[in-house]
Amino acid sequence: MIDERLLDDTAGLARADERGALLALASAGARVRTALRAADEAGLGALRPQGRPRAVLVAGHGSAATAGDVLAAFCGGACQVAVLRPGPGEDAGPEWTLPGWASPSDLLIAVATDGEVPGLVKLVERAYARGCSLVVIAPTDSRLGQAALQVRALPLPYLPGVEPDERRPLYEDADLPREDPSDFWGVLTPLLALALRVGLLPGEQKALHDAADRLDEAAVRCRPSLAAYDNPAKTLAVQLDATLPLLWSLGPCGTAVAGRFTAMLADHAGRAALSGVLPEAMAAQRGLFSGGLGAGSAEPDDFFRDRVDDQGALRLQVVLLRHRPGAEDPATEGTPDVTGEPPADHLADSDPPGTRRTVTRAHRLAADHQVALRELGSSRTDPVEALAELVALTDFAAVYLGLAAERT
Questions:
Q1: Left, alpha or beta for 187 (phi > 0: left; psi -120 to 50: alpha)?
Q2: 133 vs 3: CA distance, rounded Å
Q3: Which of 278, 252, 261 is nearest to 382 (CA)?
Q4: Which of 22, 59, 168, 383 has fewest C-beta within 10 Å?
Q5: 259, 249 in Cβ contact below 8 A?
Q6: d(Cα 79, Cα 15) in Å, to the nearest integer?
Q7: CA-CA distance, 272 to 254, in Å (whole number)?
Q8: How far apart are CA 359 and CA 250, in angstroms?
Q9: Using N-to-C axis directions, what is the helix angle for 63-75 and 183-198, rounded to 10°?
Q10: Whole-prediction pTM value?
């Protein structure tokens, strides 16, 4: 059970944040701008693609794999995007398998925040032998960065937020080093910039600069010095305490945010969460509602309720994540809503009938089982800006939840 006063103790949060996660999240906007500048200097702006690839393969782990999932969610309608994740290799360290159908018509993007992963070096060498087009996102002086020059790949430099020797290892296995939260933007930015350049994603590079502005704004709204009742990330952290979150999503943006939020809750808060895409998630997870987790407290949304009676009682919590470009409110334009549960008649007029019915059914299912459901939506027109807004909010919430739990 979180004592909200712990979240308002700025000095205490700073002491508990040994990983420097809050500072890393606050620098996410700067990471985007730095990554864009580095990609342009590396030649991305001068790239003249000759048509789209048949398929895009993204190989990486940790933040790189999550960034690949975002690319797949956003660009899946333009061409096939597959994320290659590592498995145990014959030698020490993880290895990646190149699909048997990979050919010169396909593009492989190898991504690593630490380019000293032998398995990725082997992968790009195999892809080069197959004739695949190659892009490598890694530190330029790393083994993978140097391998990019040997296989005639487009090298897009990865610039870490902290010096490598300042990082604290996550595992004893050095092949999977610990990452800071803003590494996600350090690898996602060149991925999206490349997708925009080759026509996999509609829009222009300005969307990424605007996304950096949204990350800066979120860092101000979610800063540690802001009290919990005014801080949307702290509010969300308190609401998720002692719950099993069901992260339901609609659309590519919501699906991407749900995947990132699940990973952040596990890594920074030590909490499990289940994600699912509507409407299928309602059928796949319906059994959870009929069990003991479905009986919420009498007022599950009361932020100021006395939580003494809630100790030891794990509740379901549904969080619906989606991009709502037609739901602008002049008073709160672009600000994610984390405070309430908008009824069905407050749905955006631009939502298609199927979406409206699905959201209404989700609210009805939660209400029937006394489970709190809250929507996190961004009304930004551009999906990349909406992604930045929602990821920033949920990233901060996961970190606050973890820091508060450590101090309980």
A1: alpha
A2: 53
A3: 252
A4: 168
A5: no
A6: 46
A7: 18
A8: 9
A9: 30
A10: 0.88
